[in-house]
Amino acid sequence: MPPDLAALQDWMQEAILAASGADARDFVHGDNRLTAEDRIHIYARGYRQRLLECLESEYPLLAALAGPTAFGLFAQGYIAARPSHSYTLYDFGADFAAWLDAARPSGSAQAVEAIPAALARIERTKAEVHRARGIERDMPAWPGIDPAIAELLALAGGRRWYRPDSCRLLALPFDFSEMLASGGPVPPRPEPMLLAVARANYRVACLPLEPWHYDWLAVLPEDPARAMALPEDERIAAWLPFATAHGLVVAAG
Fold it and tell me: Which residues are within 8 A (CB) of 217 and not within 5 positions of it... i.e. 6 or more apart?
């Protein structure tokens, strides 16, 4: 008696995810060209190739820097360790940076082997910021006035500030400035880097930060209801036009 459709679908899903031809002859017909196991392996290889292509698309700088052979090994290891369990492929690559960091040989945070995980953190953060709730619809609608100027004009009213969900902060063990500026696979310098990944006017940008930039942004709440007053720091006041124009901070209310 043939299995019902639901049972057959469950078995095929398990076989493809595990790349296993076990029990294939109970469910799949083979012939003199392809055995039942061969037929299942074709589907399994195609599925893994699609996942690899998704990772290449989400992590293009890492793929370019590592090269196809090394990136393929990274991807195949991740696919085997973290099978997809979501209806959307966007969720599949979420743990890639953490897996790369856990899988590398133990050693210094600035060892060469730590570069892939650090770069993957940047690229995943860019994907998350692209989807995050942004500030575009909340920008001041003052005709003829640039939004950044509008925010500065509001300072006299004692505005309070918060960091939106579309601005994420990263403290990295490598300086990727040249790579991010050129868009090419330039090896990073083994120096710490503070970075903001933010979206403004629907464009995502990676913005290097000074320590005092990072420290102020890190203490700002993400909840507009808990927004904070501008500190008495001339440097921050002078930097505010840049920060507001690039979506790093928003005035509440």
Answer: 163, 167, 169, 196, 209, 243, 248, 249
